[in-house]
């Protein structure tokens, strides 16, 4: 069985994952959604956050993370060039010339081909943590979308699927589970219809 590529991401109800300058601090931290999702997907927390919270739980869903350069740069601004040391880390960039950090592999060309290779390997799932432009590029290989949908309208920002490319045909997904938390966040899991 092939590994699945899952786009696990937070978004506003108008479809943005960050402000235009890449900030995500408008997403509320805490609440009942945070505890529930963290319990289910602890590997999606940065290593330093896991350590500060005392989370030592083994990875249960993902053992690999993919991120675009802008998403990785956000981690660098928070003080680390290797944000997910507990996962195999890949940064996709055509502008970087070398690995951006210890334990981080650079994918500088053919990200779709590299993802297809990763999906054939043994292991847990592959987490695409951002950003929207990379999600647009990897859309043909995205098997699932796990969306933390916040009850916020941002107006402008970085879209869930960026790049502005017109698709040859619409890509279809179906909801496989959904849960609305008391704090208003909805957690929706989608699976691709093939």
Q: TL;DR?
A:
This protein is an alpha/beta fold and 194 residues long.
- Going by helix content, strand content and strand pairing, the class is alpha/beta
Return the CATH class of the domain at 41-143: Alpha Beta
Distance between the termini: 16 Å
Radius of gyration: 16 Å
Give the CA-based shape. globular
CATH fold call of the domain at 41-143 = Dihydrofolate Reductase, subunit A
Strand content: 25-35%
Indicate the low-confidence ranges by residue numbers: none
Count of discrete alpha- or pi-helical segments spanning 4 or more residues: 5
User: What is the helix/strand order?
Assistant: EEHHEHEEHEHEEEE
User: Portion of residues in helices?
Assistant: 10-25%
Sum up the structure in keywords.
194 residues, alpha/beta, Dihydrofolate Reductase, subunit A, two-stranded antiparallel ribbon, 5 helices, 29% strand, globular
Task: Please characterize this protein's 3D structure.
The chain has a domain at 41-143: 3-Layer(aba) Sandwich (Dihydrofolate Reductase, subunit A). The protein is α/β, with parallel strands linked by helices. It has an eight-stranded mixed beta sheet. A two-stranded antiparallel sheet has the order 2-8. Helices cover 22% and strands 29% of the residues. It is built from five helices and ten strands.
Topology:
Layout: E1 5-12, E2 16-18, H1 31-40, H2 47-53, E3 62-68, H3 69-77, E4 88-92, E5 104-107, H4 111-120, E6 125-130, H5 132-138, E7 144-150, E8 158-159, E9 173-180, E10 186-192
Parallel strand pairs: 1-6, 1-7, 3-4, 3-6, 4-5
Antiparallel strand pairs: 2-8, 7-10, 9-10
């Amino acid at each position: 069985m092939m590994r699945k590529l899952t786009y696990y991401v937070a978004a506003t109800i108008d479809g943005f994952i960050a402000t235009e300058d890449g900030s995500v601090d408008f997403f509320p931290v805490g609440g009942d959604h945070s505890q529930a999702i963290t319990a289910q997907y602890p590997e999606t927390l940065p290593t330093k956050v896991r350590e500060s919270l005392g989370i030592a739980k083994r990875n249960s869903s993902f053992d690999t993370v993919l991120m675009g350069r802008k998403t990785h740069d956000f981690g660098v601004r928070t003080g680390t060039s290797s944000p997910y040391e507990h996962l195999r880390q890949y940064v996709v960039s055509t502008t970087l010339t070398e690995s951006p950090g210890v334990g981080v592999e650079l994918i500088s060309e053919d990200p779709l081909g590299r993802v297809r290779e990763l999906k054939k390997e043994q292991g847990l799932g592959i987490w695409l943590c951002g950003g929207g432009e990379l999600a647009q590029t990897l859309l043909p290989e995205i098997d699932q979308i796990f969306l933390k949908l916040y009850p916020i309208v941002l107006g402008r920002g970085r879209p869930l699927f960026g790049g502005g490319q017109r698709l040859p045909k619409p890509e279809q997904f179906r909801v496989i589970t959904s849960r609305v938390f008391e704090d208003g966040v909805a957690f929706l899991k989608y699976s691709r219809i093939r």
